[in-house]
Amino acid sequence: MSETDVPAARETVAGAFDAAAELPAAEADALRDAASAAFLSGLTTVSLVAAALLAVTGVVAGTVLRRHAS
Fold it and tell me: Distance of CA 22 to CAs 9, 19, 37, 56, 57, Å?
């Protein structure tokens, strides 16, 4: 892997997969697995935070609407 591939591999999943194409099979598989795991971990975290914010927004909206309806 060239020195220019290292930043790309650290920044994006696509960059990691492109950099893996230049590595031996075992190292390429490890890099692809690590990139995929990091992506899924981030996606899971963002999804959970978004779901929590949506739930809080729903509670706040319900509370505000009940107060205005009375």
Answer: 12, 6, 20, 46, 47
